[in-house]
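Notes from hallway chat w/ T.B., transcribed later so I don't forget. T.B. wanted the structure written out for a chain they're using in a teaching module, and asked if we could keep both sequence and structure tokens in one place. Agreed to drop them here.
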Amino acid sequence: MNLKEEIQNYIPFNEQEEADKKLMLYYLNTFDDCLTRENKIAHFTSSGFIVNKTRDKVLFIYHNIYNSWAWTGGHADGEEDLLQVAIREAKEETGIEEVNPVTEKLFALDILPVSSHIKKGKFVSSHVHLNATYLLEADDDKIVRPKLDENKAVNWLPIDHLEEYVSEKHMLSVYDKVIEKLKKLPNCEIHF
């Protein structure tokens, strides 16, 4: 299934996702470069919301640019299989070797604002990320390590206390939505 079909088949969780789904499909139908950073206004990214087996912790990185604890993820950079992007980025950014999808289906859709910043010595203008989120799982007893050019630290955080760690306040509603959706999964027992 290609990205356009995956988004078309996605059932939005709420009104925000319904609106973002429509805009993402518009971008896919209108721009041939929205899978790359060549589109300076909006381009696709993929994030991994990595939970442990008991679902009481989430593996987050301390992001160098945003100076906040955040999920893993990265730019599509031309790749249409955003699940594979999420898995690759999760491994690269945390050092964890085994990360598996809880479900291979798209788990959340969000259009996320990105403020202007300096990356690798170059100015990057404000833009938005057309973000696809995937629910991933890893063992919380495995060794983790930061990818120092992107993050300062990696840690398992208590899933029910993310507001104590995340300084990007606009992201808390995104994480809360993912956690709310996680709780509604069949056969998903969350221990907190």
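Follow-up for T.B.: The helical segments are 3-9, 15-30, 82-94, 169-183. Might be a good example for the class.
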